[in-house]
Amino acid sequence: MSDVLHPGLPVVVVDDEEAILLSIDTSLRMAGINNIITCKDSRKVMDLLKNDPVEMMLLDLTMPYLHGEELLDMVRSEFPEIPVIIITGTVEVETAVRCMKSGAFDYVVKPLEEGRLIKAVSQAMAFKGLRRENLALKQHILSDTLEHPDAFAAIITNNQKMLSLFKYIETIAATPQPILITGETGVGKELIANAIHKVSGLTGPFTAVNVAGLDDHTFSDTLFGHVKGAFTGADRDRNGLVEQAAGGTLFLDEIGDLSHTSQVKLLRLLQEGEYLPLGRDTPKYSNARVLTATNQDLWVSQKEGRIRKDLFYRLGTYHIHIPPLRDRMDDIPLLVEQFLEEASVTLNKKRPTPPKELFSLLCTYSLPGNVRELRSLVFDAVSRHTSKMLSLDVFKSYIKKERQGQPSPETEKEDKTPISFSGKLPTIKQTTELLIKEALKRSRGNQTIAAQILGISQPALSKRLKR
User: Where, per the database record, does this protein carry 4-aspartylphosphate (predicted)?
Assistant: First the structure.
C-alpha cells in the first residue's frame, strides 16, 4: 500500500481510554485512513486545533477534566468548520442526541462497531470536502487564469468552452468524490481524466482501464484481484488495479457498459471504499479516487434500467461534459497544425503546408469521430503527400464518402426532411438563393467547397451567383 497520507489533514481522536484510542486507530488504518492524531487529555485539544488545521474529530463524551459536551461547544464556537463525531456509551444516547442538536455531525455508540465507525468518518470527510470545494469554486470562478496550465498541455485548444472547463477541473480536482466525464467518442475523455489526476496533487499512479465488454468475473479480477486458489489457474495472489492505484486515480472508461452485478460491486467501492478480491471473505479498503467516463447518455440508461439509479446518482457527484469538436471549430487550425507536425515526425516526411481552403472544408464537416477522427485523417493525408502543399483530395474524398454513408450527429435525431416549412412557401428562386447563401456561409466564402456541399460543380455555382 502507498505511504500517502489520507486524508490530507489529520483526523483527531479524543478519548481518555488507551484501548479505545488503539481500537479506533487500527480500524481507521485498515480502512485506508492513515492520517490520525490521538489525544488522551481533553485539556490539550483546543491548543492542538489552534496549531494545525484538521479534517475532523472523534470526541468521547465521558472524560476527566473537560466533559465531551463542554469541549464540543468550545470546538463549535472557535472551529465551526470541523465536523465532530461523538463517541458515546449506550446510557448516554440522549446526551449524544442533544450534542447533535448543538452541531455535532454524528455519533457512534460503544462498543464500537467497525462498519458504523468507518461509515460515519467517511461521511464526515465527504461533508468537509464538499464545503471546501464549494468555497474553492466560488473563489476560482472569480479568477481569469489557470493555476496549473501544465496539467492541460496535452489538450490542444484555445476554445473558451474548454478553458472554462479547465477552470472547473482545477476547482474540483482534489475532491475524493467520483467525477463522471461524458462526451462523444474521440473528444479526449482520458486526456481530461489525466489532467484531473495531475491537478489533484495525488502522488499515487494514474491507472486506466476500459471496462466495456468485461463480464463480471473479468471485471472483478481486473479491478479487485484474487487470492491463491480462488479459481482454476489462480496459483498465486494477484493485486487488482484498485490496489495498484492506491493513493492515486483509478479511471474507468466506458462505464455505461457494465453488467448489473458489476455495478453493485462498483457502487460498494464508491460508497464505502470496500472491495472483495476473488476468493477472499473479508473486504479490503481503497483510498484511490475514482473517475469514470462514457459516451452514452446515462440519464437515458438509468431510465431504461441499464444503469442502476443509485449508481447513476453516485457517479454524477461531479459531471464534466466535453463538447464535440463541431461545437469548437476554432480549435481545428490548432489541431491540424499539431497533427501535421506529429505525422511528419512519425512518417519521417517533410512537414507539408496546409492550403487555407483546408480549414474551410473541415468546418463544413461534422467530424463525428471528433479529435481522434481528425488526427487519423491528417495522418492519412500526410502519408499520401508528395508535394510541398498538402492536397485537399484526401479530405474531399473522405468527407464525401462519410456524408453518403451516414447522417451527421447534428441531424441523425432530427426529422429526415432536411428542410421544414412554416407559413407561406418560398419560391424556387428564393429557396435557391437561401441555399447558396448558407453554403457560402458554411464554407467561409469558398465557392469550390460551397459547390461540394450543394452537390453541384463550381462552374454551375458561379453561373448561379452571376444571375
Answer: 60
Q: Are strands 206-210 and 249-253 parallel, antiparallel or unpaired?
A: parallel
Which tops the pLDDT comparison, 9 or 427? 9
Nearest of 182, 146, 186, 150 to residue 166 by alpha carbon: 146
**415: pLDDT strictly greater than 50:** no
CA distance linking residue 37 with residue 13, whole number of Å: 6
What is the model's pLDDT at position 414? 44
Q: Kindly tell me if the per-residue pLDDT of 423 is higher than 70.
A: no
Distance CA 21, CA 39 (A): 8
Strands (E), 162-220: 179-182, 206-210
pLDDT tens digit string along 327-361? 998 899 899 999 999 999 899 888 888 888 888 88
Q: With residue 50 as reference, give the H or E element that holds it.
A: helix 45-51
Reference 325, options 186, 149, 195, 151; nearest CA is 186
Q: pLDDT tens, 254-267?
A: 998 899 999 999 99
Contact between residue 446 and residue 357 where contact means Cβ atoms under 8 Å apart: yes
Tell me the residue ranges of DSSP E strands in 183-254: 206-210, 225-226, 238-239, 249-253
Cell numbers describing residue 230: 480462488
Q: Residue 369: what are its φ and ψ, rounded to 5°?
A: -90, 0
| Alpha helix segments (H runs only) across 329-390 | 332-346, 357-362, 370-383
- Give the pLDDT band of residue 128 (cuts 50, 70, 90): confident
Q: Which of 86, 96, 82, 201 is nearest to 131 (CA)?
A: 82
**Which of 126-135, 143-152, 195-204 is predicted most confidently?**
195-204
Closest CA to 368 of 416, 406, 332, 339: 406
What is the rounded CA–CA span in Å between residue 208 and residue 292?
Answer: 10
Q: Convert 18-27 to b/e letters by CB count within 10 Å (16 or more is b).
A: eebbebbbeb
Tally of CA atoms within 13 A in the half-sphere of 184 that contains its CB: 16
Helix residue spans in 248-392 (DSSP H): 260-272, 298-303, 309-315, 332-346, 357-362, 370-383
Flag whether pLDDT at 324 surpasses 80: yes
- For cell 473479468, the residue is 218
CA distances from 118 to 1, 59, 123, 228, 451 (A): 19, 15, 9, 28, 67
Domains defined along the chain, listed by start: 11-135 (3.40.50.2300), 143-148+178-321 (3.40.50.300), 324-410 (1.10.8.60), 423-467 (1.10.10.60)
- pTM of the entire structure? 0.63
Residue-averaged pLDDT of the chain: 86
Bridge partners, 293 (sequence order): 181
